[in-house]
Each structure stands twice: as C-alpha cells, then as structure tokens.
Amino acid sequence: MLTRRTWRRHRLMAIAVVAAAVAALSGCSSSAGSSYNSNASCSNTIDKPNATKITVWSWSPTIEVASDAFNKAHSDVQACIANVGAGTAEYNKLNTAIAAGSGAPTSP
Question: Which of 11, 42, 44, 84 could make an S-S bridge to 80, C-beta 3.0–4.6 Å?
Fold first, then answer.
C-alpha cells in the first residue's frame, strides 16, 4: 500500500514527466500532421480534440491523473498517454526509437 507521501511523490513525478514531454515535443508537432484520427488510442481524457496532440509513452499507473490535469489546463496542446508496458520488448522498442531519432508511437 502506498503511503500518502509516496503517492504525492509519484504524482509529482508524473506531472513533471508530462510537462517535460509536452515542453520538449510541442514545438515539433502540429495538428495538421498528426496521425490521430480519434482519441481511441489514448488511455487518458483528451479535453480539446482539435488541439495539437503529443503521445507520451508511459507505464506508470498515475500518469493519467497528471496528464488529465495538464490537458484541462492547456487548450493548445494535449497529452495522449500510450501505456506501452514495461517488459523487455517495450524497452527495446523505446531504445530503438531514441537511437534512431524517430519511431515515436502513432495511432492506428
């Protein structure tokens, strides 16, 4: 069971991760070039469907709370959470995408 202090720490870390991802990627993406046709692939709530969307790979159970709060606060960009798992295959895919500089997740 998570203590109140641990829960707070996890929540703050999740908020920081989402904020950093949005700050780093919002300048690189555009809604016109987005591959998102719907919010079906997002495991969190997208409040502004016409805003620029970025995908945040995560496996943290608390990231959706942080991203929903972020999405409510920002009308120009929305974070779409993709729970990519935490196994060897997922880590290999992440490392490959980082090394290649491309291969970020996209919606089907």
Answer: 42
CA 58 to chain centre: 7
Query: What confidence tier does 35 reach under pLDDT thresholds 50, 70, 90?
Result: very low
Task: Please say whether the beta carbons of 21 and 56 come within 8 A.
Answer: yes
Rounded CA gap, 81 and 71, in Å?
Answer: 11
Cα three-residue angle 80-93-51, rounded to 5 degrees = 20
pTM: 0.52
What digits encode the pLDDT tens for the residues 56-81? Answer: 888 887 888 999 999 999 999 999 99
User: Which 3 state secondary structure label does DSSP give 78?
Assistant: strand
Identify the CA nearest to 58 among candidates 17, 6, 99.
Answer: 17
Instruction: Please provide the DSSP assignment of 23-62 as one string.
Output: HHHTTT--STT---SSSTT-SS--S-TTSEEEEEEE--TT
Could you give the CA distance from residue 82 to residue 55 in angstroms, rounded to a whole number?
A: 7
